[in-house]
Each structure stands twice: as C-alpha cells, then as structure tokens.
Amino acid sequence: MARVVVGLSGGVDSSVAAYLLKQQGHEVIGLFMVNWHDTTGTLEGDCPWHDDRVFAELVAKKLDIPLHVVDLSADYRTRVVDYMFAEYERGRTPNPDVLCNREIKFDVFLREALKLGAEFVATGHYCRKTVTTDAAGAPVFHLLAGSDPNKDQSYFLCQLSQEQLRYALFPIGHLIKPEVRRIAEEQGLATAKRKDSQGICFVGKVDLPVFLQQKLVARKGNIHEILPTWPKYARREVCDPSAVEPTDAQLTAWAAAWRYTVRDGKKIGEHNGAHFYTIGQRKGLGIGGRKESLFILATDVEANAIYVGEGDSHPGLWRPALRIEPNELHWVVPAQALRVGESRRYAVRIRYRQPLQGAVLYVRDSGVYLVFDEPQRGITAGQFAAWYDSDELVGSGVIAE
C-alpha cells in the first residue's frame, strides 16, 4: 500500500475519494488548499474557501486522517488569475479550470504533497488513468474519460503531462455521481448533500466584469449588429470535411474567424469594454425588444467594439474549423503525436460538457487544424480543444481562432 495525499476540497467527490483510498488500505493524508482571498466580484459575498475548509476538517475527522492546510494563493494569482486577466485583455476567453489543474493541483500542490512523503496524489475528478509499457519497458500513462458521461471531467485535465499523471490517482473515476453521493451518505460524511461548486476554480461564482475590473479598465464602446445577410457569409468557401487532403489555403480559410469592422453593421447600443465579453455570450448586453436573443459574434479590443447577431442560427456564430498554434499543442502521450503532414480522425470537444464531435485533425507547419463534420457554434479563441480516441484523451491545444 502507498502513502497518498488527497486534495480535500470540502466537496463530496474528494471526500469519497479519501474514503475509498483508506478502504483500500492506503495511508491517506488530507491536504486542503487556500488559493484565493480576494472577494472582489464574488457573488457569495465571502471567500468560499472558509466553508470548504470546515467541511474538509469534518471529513478528515470522520475518516480519522490527518489534514494539512497550505496557502497557494500567491502561485494561483500569478499562474492562473494573472493569465486570465492577460487573456481577456487580448480579447480571448481563457479556461481557468484547465490552467488550475495544470499549474496548481498537479504542479504546485503536487510539490507540497511530495514534501509530505506522498507516493501518489489523489483528487475527486471524474476521470480514469491506465498504465501500459513502451518498447523499452517504461511506463506510459493514459488519461481516460470518467465512467459517468454526465460528469466526465477529463477535459479539465487535458493539459497534464506524463510526469504529472505518474503521480495521479482518480479513485472515483469509475463511479457515477449518484453512487458517490450514496457512499458519502452511508459513511456519514458531512459533504454527502453539499452542492457542487460552481464558477471559477477556487474563486467561485463571480460577476465577471466586476472581477476583471481589478485590472482591466472599463471603457465605453459601441455595439454593432451584423445581419445574417452580411455579404461575406455567402462568399466563404464551403467546407467539405470529406475532402481527401485539403490544401493549406483551404484549411486556413475554413478555420479563419469572422472579421468585422464598424462599417459592417449598425450601432444599436453601448458597452463598458470589449474585453469583458466573449463569443456566444447572450446575457449582459442590455438590449431588448427582439424576437430572438442577441448573441456576441466577435469582439475587437483594439477598436473596443462588439459585434452581435440575432438568433442562435445566425451564420456568424458557426464555423467549420479551428486552428491551434504549433507551440500551443499538447499530446498527453508524446509517442501518439502526429507529425507535420499527417492527419487523423478524432472525437473532439471545445468546451466542458459539449457532446463529442467528429473531426479530422491536420498537422501543418502553420499549426494544427481541426475540421469538423458539422459546423460548430461559438468557437472561441483562448479556450481549449481536446481530442479523444475512443475514451482516451489524446491531446489538446489552445484555440487560436
């Protein structure tokens, strides 16, 4: 049996993970992270970690395991929150949960766990890990989707490396959520009926513009409506995902984001800063009186302009492909990486909880292109695309456009 440090978060998932590990005979140690102190923009009106710590302490006492507390807020601010600010300032929409796992839970937190003599680090993620060996007999670690299709969290771990996966354990990955709740209730764990956390990892639910105004200045700008009849929609080359080998020019054209200028649409309102908004967003525009909702089609932080369209079927919301910069590409198992000039079919998601989408991945000198079988809604720069081979998460990358 091994010494395992569990990231006790104060939620039911990590609580049951700790219980299962102890049942298996491991030496289990709880470690609670304090990652955020500032309440600016939080909707709860208080730092949610205060309550989380109380629940973590109750669970540790019930399971009779030691609980340590570590303050990682300085690392969290510089490696996750500052990254968020920088991305929004560029007009991109980051995914802090993916960054939190790569930079904090399986890096800074992992190092703290190793100081406690950990052989493994466990979390309450709904995903699985398997191990094979390569030709030289060295272990190869594979990241698999969780068994619960409604809770699979492998997407949030899409940036983990072999070294990080080497230490990782996911004790509840084979369970479905109702089973986890049932185990917690049967064992009398204080977290059994506690609601799942929401919002930004370790920050909680926030009023995003207020939260971002800690560093990003509000600036009045104009909202312009783009009509579905905008001429360039009709002139875009039709994407044929069944094409045997598209040219580099075709891939570039298919993946290109829609570009607008203020001359392309009529001004219909004002906003407080283009960097506070994201593609596909429906709420927060303050414009009513429409048959259908207005959705953000694009933002231009340099011109401080927002472009919107009416209705979920607006052509500006849909695109057939996306591109990833070569230096933003990550393969969980490096030996599975495609070389320049190669292509392969995968199942892809571009946001958490999105059903997997069929696509072909093409590797070119200019980047990686994902061409979908069906056009995708709200492809957003700064988010992560992750691709799967069956239930194995093979790779991921930051969407460039």
Question: Could you give the topology of this structure?
Answer:
Elements: E1 3-7, H1 12-23, E2 27-34, H2 49-63, E3 67-71, H3 73-89, H4 96-115, E4 120-122, E5 127-133, E6 139-145, H5 162-167, E7 168-169, H6 177-186, H7 208-212, E8 221-225, H8 231-235, H9 248-255, E9 266-271, E10 294-300, E11 305-310, E12 318-331, E13 343-349, E14 357-364, E15 367-377, E16 384-389, E17 392-399
Parallel strand pairs: 1-2, 1-4, 2-3, 4-7, 8-11
Antiparallel strand pairs: 5-6, 6-17, 8-9, 10-11, 12-15, 12-17, 13-14, 13-16, 14-15, 16-17
Structure description:
With 401 residues, the chain is an alpha/beta fold. The chain has 3 domains: 3-211, Rossmann fold (3-Layer(aba) Sandwich), CATH 3.40.50; 216-317, SH3 type barrels (Roll), CATH 2.30.30.280; 319-399, Translation factors (Elongation Factor Tu (Ef-tu), domain 3), CATH 2.40.30. The protein has helices spanning 12-23, 49-63, 73-89, 96-115, 162-167, 177-186, 208-212, 231-235, 248-255, and strands spanning 3-7, 27-34, 67-71, 120-122, 127-133, 139-145, 168-169, 221-225, 266-271, 294-300, 305-310, 318-331, 343-349, 357-364, 367-377, 384-389, 392-399. Helix 1 (12-23) packs parallel to helix 2 and helix 3 packs antiparallel against helix 4. It is globular, with a radius of gyration of 23 Å. Mean pLDDT is 91; it is low at 41-46.
Gross morphology is globular
Strand order of the largest sheet: 12-15-14-13-16-17
Number of domains: 3
Q: How many strands appear in the DSSP assignment?
A: 17
Report Rg: 23 Å
